[in-house]
Specification:
Blueprint lengths: L5 E2 L1 H12 L9 E5 L2 E6 L2 E2 L2 E5 L11 H11 L3 E7 H4 L6 E2 L1 H12 L3 E11 L8 H5 L6 E3 L5 E5 L4 H22 L5 E8 L12 H8 L4 H9 L6 H9 L8 H5 L3 H26 L4 E6 L20 H7 L5 E6 L4 H8 L7 E2 L1 E2 L5 H12 L3 E2 L11 H19 L5 E6 L5 E6 L2 E7 L18 E9 L2 E7 L1 E7 L6 E13 L2 E8 L10 E3 L5 E10 L1
Parallel strand pairs: 5-6, 5-16, 6-8, 8-11, 11-12, 12-13, 13-15, 14-16
Antiparallel strand pairs: 1-7, 2-3, 3-4, 9-10, 17-20, 18-19, 19-22, 20-21, 21-26, 22-25, 23-24, 23-26
The chain binds (2R,3S,4R,5S)-2-(hydroxymethyl)piperidine-3,4,5-triol.
(2R,3S,4R,5S)-2-(hydroxymethyl)piperidine-3,4,5-triol (DGJ) binds next to loops.
């Protein structure tokens, strides 16, 4: 049955007041630090999101949600990322209708799935297409960003108190509704604030208020942040600040130089201030973890040519300075260079969560690398409902088994990840006193695929250290050789290898693997097309 909640502003305020007294807040989903990793805790335990994001309009078709969520559960997800549409939630100014939210929560609960809501509020991929019509039409009250030419854009300007107040009120109402309806069951575990914020076709907004702020001094708060975090600033930002004399005050162009880069930094900071107000108020209503997602600039374009000033890696510090209520920043990966994007976003304390990645069979390999090498919090291909059969299901099946062990090991230097293709077919990692050579199984000279010019599927695996001489290796298409870390140390040999299953953190051997399956005791291997968890016991000899 559909439930409809229409809230007047007064009722919303009462609801929020009751939410803020809620005792359940400390047991809500939250982030916790374990060693070098940040983990999402759900019901007091680390929760690895084996996720997928719905296409933009799927969650508006309420009659299909149950079928979609049933399918996603069969695909192997434990978490669905789904939009919360401002235009549907507040169809009339100040009157809220949470039918679409309640329907998503009901479908998720029916199929034992968790939800991450994506606030399609003031901005969705730079634009303001999800603003309700009453906002769009009242452009005098809710002003637009402007191009350098003066042309108004289909984007709300962040330099408007009215825009901020409208977006914030709707977001607070959403969070208040979640507090009221979900604080006990906790189906909703995290919230993304806005979607791929970015300025285009110019690097900054040219509305009059923006230009006035651009000629004013850089706020002390930002300069103070740069000084306090100088050691960990992104190299590009630090270089820019230093190249312009490491100014402690001055205009944006004095501090960051004349050019589009200063425009972008200015814009990022002001988007950040807007988002901070929205997120902080939302957390006061219901304190779920909140993050931002970024459209990446993969082609080396200039600010203004790509959605600029969003939460991009080179602007991470600016966003952190402006929006401390945002817990972390996440990349949407649609372009090549997966390993490099992971490294850029798993940096200076920012944990890795991949809320969007282009749907591809190779995600089945990439997901092992993200969790094993970068302590990822979650992984989530876009338009996941379009998947019929995907090898990702097999990877998620393996990761579901491993989740408690992986969560226990994250942040402690007890895991690593491998990701291989034809161009990058091997790597040596250091782990637990061993050198570990990982290779694509097609990389061996004897493989018919080694030199036949055929395309290779990506291969991926993660390694978890169980004890001094025992490791789990899980993945597909990878061979792993364990070697002593020092050339003069005793030689490392394979005691034995078992194919295993894992349940509730307990490893159960299925059967012994040897002979051709371990290249006569030389390495552990998982063929392309197999998804295994194997346990290897090592020994030393001289
Ligand atoms: C990235 C956006 O965040 C998604 O909402 C969607 O528009 C995809 N791009 C489409 O490729």
């Amino acid at each position: 049955m559909k439930t409809t909640t229409i809230l007047t502003p007064l009722l919303a305020a009462l609801l929020l007041a009751s939410c803020s007294r809620r005792p359940a807040q400390e047991s809500l989903p939250r982030l916790a630090v374990q060693g070098a990793a940040t983990q999402l805790m759900v019901s007091g335990k680390p929760f690895l999101m084996l996720g997928g994001e719905l296409g933009n309009s799927t969650a508006a078709n309420l009659s299909a949600l149950d079928t979609v969520f049933a399918h996603l559960r069969r695909v192997g997800l434990n978490t669905v990322l789904t939009p919360a549409y401002w235009e549907l939630i507040e169809p009339q100014e100040g009157r809220f209708d949470f039918t679409s939210i309640d329907a998503a929560i009901a479908a998720a609960r029916a199929h034992d799935l968790k939800l991450v809501f994506l606030w399609f509020g003031a901005w969705k991929n730079s634009m303001s297409c999800y603003a309700p019509l009453w906002v769009k039409e009242s452009y005098a009250k809710y002003p637009r960003a402007r191009a350098k030419s003066g042309r108004p854009l289909e984007m709300l300007t962040p330099f408007s108190d009215a825009n901020l107040a409208a977006d914030r009120r709707a977001f607070v109402a959403l969070m208040g509704h979640l507090a009221l309806t979900d604080a006990a069951e906790r189906t909703v575990i995290m919230v993304q604030v806005e979607n791929e914020i970015g300025m285009i076709p110019d690097a900054r907004d040219y509305c009059p208020e923006a230009t006035a702020r651009f000629t004013a001094p850089v706020p002390r708060q930002l300069i103070g942040y740069l000084s306090a975090h100088e050691a960990t600033l992104h190299p590009a930002l630090r270089a820019r600040w230093e190249a312009n004399g490491r100014q402690a005050e001055g205009s944006w162009q004095k501090v960051f130089g004349e050019g589009l880069e200063a425009d972008e930094i200015f814009m990022a900071y002001h988007y950040g201030l807007f988002v901070e107000e929205v997120a902080r108020a939302g957390k006061e209503a219901y304190a779920l973890p909140m993050y931002l997602n970024a459209a990446l600039n993969s082609r080396g374009r200039k600010p203004g040519q790509y959605p600029s000033a969003g939460p991009l890696a080179h602007l991470l510090d600016v966003w952190r300075a402006a929006a401390p209520s945002i817990d972390f920043i996440a990349p949407d990966i649609y372009d090549p260079g997966f390993a490099s994007w992971c490294a850029q976003y798993h940096a200076s304390g920012n944990p890795l969560f991949i809320p969007e990645i282009r749907m591809s069979d190779d995600n089945a390999a990439k997901v092992f690398y993200a969790f094993g090498e970068h302590d990822a919090m979650g992984f989530s291909p876009f338009s996941i409902e379009d998947v019929r059969t995907s090898p990702l299901s097999k990877s998620y099946g393996v990761l579901r088994q491993l989740a408690p062990l992986l969560a226990e090991a994250q942040g402690k230097g007890k895991t690593c990840g491998f990701l291989f293709d034809r161009d990058s077919a091997w790597r040596v990692a250091e782990l637990g006193g061993y050198r570990i050579l990982g290779q694509h199984v097609y990389a061996f000279g004897w493989s018919p695929r080694a030199r036949d010019g055929s395309p290779w599927p990506e291969a991926g695996a993660l390694v978890i250290q169980l004890s001094d001489d025992e490791f789990l290796v899980a993945g597909s298409g990878v061979a792993v050789t364990f070697m002593s870390a020092h050339p003069d140390a005793p030689v490392t040999g394979i005691g034995y290898v078992d194919k295993v299953t894992v349940a509730n953190g307990n490893v159960t051997p299925l059967y012994r693997l040897n002979g051709d399956q371990s290249h006569q005791g030389r390495h552990l291997r998982i063929e392309v097309g197999d998804w295994d968890i194997q346990r290897i016991k090592l020994y030393r000899y001289e």
